[in-house]
């Protein structure tokens, strides 16, 4: 459905942000795009939605490419930005009527699409109210409803649950699932890892303009499992030194009383436990196996603060 | 698609109460106030002439005649006082600008060849009265005395009142003076209504800068412009969609202000705006003025970074264009250098266009150049703003 091949991009007077970026998003998937602030997520979405043009490489959406088939591509995608991108002085219906009328290809079915968008976002009862009087949750739902007016096959959602209560968040996530079930491909960015874990079947984690990992969520969380062992107190300095040497030889890290590493298989885990037993060291806690998305995210992007 | 953009803009401006006040109420208030305020200054014939006090020590025949001559003086209004004290008090309180006190035996004094008299006609001035006004009052007093004395020359002749008046006027030189106004018809001066109605209409039309810049910058700041970028709609449609509704708003403003000038202002000032056979030219003039105002507003809206910046820049620019363009101060009272500077303001081109049609009753030959200047100005500014707008939304 979406194919990015060897994409280069840099903002004017800035060093290159993307160099040779490749990404493929399958049709019908619910794709989570993760990355710290400044990683390049918004730029990547702007490239995929035709707002920016790459310096090199090709972006293909459903077999069509920018810039030659831009209008045709834009007819079938929707970008739902993080900002409340509508007119607060207009009512829900007036906003929907205005944005719907900008899609020439949906002229016949306009009224029906507006009703569908209202129903899916639970705004039917609010249709006559001015948007400026809405709560954050209602504004998010209107933002989403506007994005559905062209019956999009591809929807880009940029942090659609920021600043809203749990009920509104639950409703929006449920709506996104329904859209995906109905056949829309969804590209979803968020800083809420548990949302991505609940919602998405495919993910990509990016930082500094590079895609660090991407693929099916289950496989990513299973791959390269991490072992973490917390030890009890070690009174003998010699044993601590012996342990350090043994772990170094096996490729594990020792930080105070915590051992971490990526054993190739379960045999390596058993060998490590035998080493600890031979040194008569006690184990307080041990975790091994599947990552959480948050752990993987921090492991890949580190924990230092971003601008 | 274009209709939807126009409808959206009209809905937005119709719900902006501040914009509606600035666009419609402000100019009506200005037209009424300024028509009243400038009524006397610009009419040429003052209805409220400055008052000069007159006190006569004796109610004799001479003083009665002199009083009549004073009453006929041009440029001042004469008020009679019962005592010198009352006249002095009125002078001190600013009720009159000057005073004349006639002594009791003035008839004898005026007929006596002796120049030294203990009693004389006294002329008093308010302390703040400018020298020119003092000379004017003194001239008026001398004129009244002259008229009296010339009248005395014929008092024993067997003449009718009309004949005597003709001879007096002849001796005073009145019948020898003919007044003429020279200069081209283009130098006609507007009265207060002819100045105020078009001036404040033009000023209000240029204030579309407020709603236009507010809407465009809100679209930018709220991310609506970015959303519009991802919709299959040409950028030029979005900008033309802003131009057309404001052209309509400007036309409604113009119709409303002209109606105020024709029907409402006369109720207050007694003098209304009058249309003539060339008034059809007002339509192209108003359209050209509107396009200039909207293009100017679009350029400011696309250049500014924030709403505050746009409204400040737009407001100040409008005030400067109005100040130099003859909107606030009529150009005919400006010195020559300022009149040359005024000709640089598009508001002045529009105002001159109105004067050409309403005042000078000129046709296309007179109003056409102003209309063409406005169209050229709006064309240049619209292209610049379209370029800026594409810069804001272009694919980089």
Fold and architecture overview:
The complex is a heterodimer of chains A (307) and B (396). Chain A is α/β, with parallel strands linked by helices and 307 residues long. Chain A has 2 domains: 2-221, 3-Layer(aba) Sandwich (Rossmann fold), CATH 3.40.50; 226-289, Alpha-Beta Plaits. Chain A is 36% helix and 25% strand. A 6-stranded mixed sheet of chain A has the order 6-7-8-3-9-10, with helices on both faces. A 4-stranded antiparallel sheet of chain A has the order 2-1-4-5, with helices on one face. Chain A has a 4-stranded antiparallel sheet with strand order 12-13-11-14, with helices on one face. In chain A, a hairpin with an 8-residue loop joins strand 1 and strand 2 (18-25). In chain A, helix 9 (237-250) packs antiparallel against helix 10. The model of chain A has no long low-confidence stretch (mean pLDDT 89). In chain B, strands 2-1-3-4 form a 4-stranded mixed sheet, with helices on both faces. In chain B, helix 9 (192-206) packs antiparallel against helix 16 and helix 12 (235-269) packs across helix 13. Chain B is built from 17 helices and 4 strands. By secondary structure, chain B is mainly α. Chain B folds into 2 domains: 2-42 and 189-393, no CATH class; 49-176, abc type-2 transporter like domain (abc type-2 transporter like fold, 3-Layer(aba) Sandwich), CATH 3.40.1710.10. Helix content of chain B is 65%, strand content 5%. The two termini of chain B are 25 Å apart. Classes of the chains: A alpha/beta (307), B mainly alpha (396). Chains A and B meet through helix 2, strand 6 and helix 3 of A and helix 1 and helix 11 of B.
